[in-house]
Amino acid sequence: MYGKAFAPEYQGELSAALGVNSSYEDVLSTAGRALADAATDTDRARAALAVAEAGRRLGRVEQARAAWHESYRSARSAGDAGAMAWALWSGGTLARQCGEIALARRLLSWAVTLAADSGDRLAHGYSLAGLAETGRIQGDYAAVAELHEELLERGRAHGEARHMVWAMSGIAQMHRNTGDYAKALDLFEESVRIATAADDARGRAWSLRGVADVVSMRGEPDRALALLTEAEVICRGMDLAGALAYNHKMRGNILYRVGWYEAARVTYGIALEEFREMSEARGAALARLGLTKSRAQLGRGHRETLAELAELEGDFGRLGLKGAQAAVVAFRAELRDSVPTAHASRSAA
């Protein structure tokens, strides 16, 4: 069983003023006022944490970075190890967003230690989840699959719908990436049901994107595009800049798979600009790969395409994205085995 979703990153007085579905512009405004009025280090740490999370999700990287640092300093002054862990969790998540994977791992590992020592169960769970997600997006499934399952069980044990949705959709993504589409679809659809029942709009948007991806792979592009449109409405309503950019990147993938290469090129271009605006290195590199593949299908020369693929392979290597590197290698092989007018595979990274 589980209850309504809640946002433990909004703490103290902010927990009453803000909820899991608050738009991030509203969070930023409310938390900014709380930060200006903070009378204690504890209040300052809590308000700065909310500013950091809103800034990160809105793509305002420098504001988010300054805020999580302020949250950490204030928490340290207050002697609050749990609050320090929350600040480090925010900073580690921001580092991952910006492609600073080694820094993300250091900050999140530190957060795990501090949270465990402080007894803050939620900070500990979120920090472990951050480490698990970092490993998953790099393709280290053997290292993090068990942790995802453990976090799902923790969410079930404590009735935390938001954490259940996160863990379940992460497990679903691993099944999708290893070719078990039926299992992935079951898990993504269950994530949608839980998020809907728990009134977790953000979790619903991300889970709908997962369903759209898998049903597209199973040959239902129209249904997939409709699901992405539904998710996009949620993203815009909550100012979910990152989720919206990934929604657009997925739309590009689906358009590419059915051979609508010009529409895919345009959509990947939109996603790329959105990722760049929020300094999302992983998303930007994936959108660039989609653009490169679309342009190749539209007749761009092999030499230019191969040069872009070489650059992207280096970028993916620096980010530690094993799956994306494999996609580059596979597409390069297709190009070298084809004549310029032949269509390569319609699969998208």
From TrEMBL:
Listed SUPFAM superfamilies: TPR-like
Classification via Pfam families: TPR_12
Protein name according to UniProt: Tetratricopeptide repeat protein
Protein's organism: Streptomyces monticola
Lineage, broadest ranks: Bacteria, Bacillati, Actinomycetota, Actinomycetes, Kitasatosporales
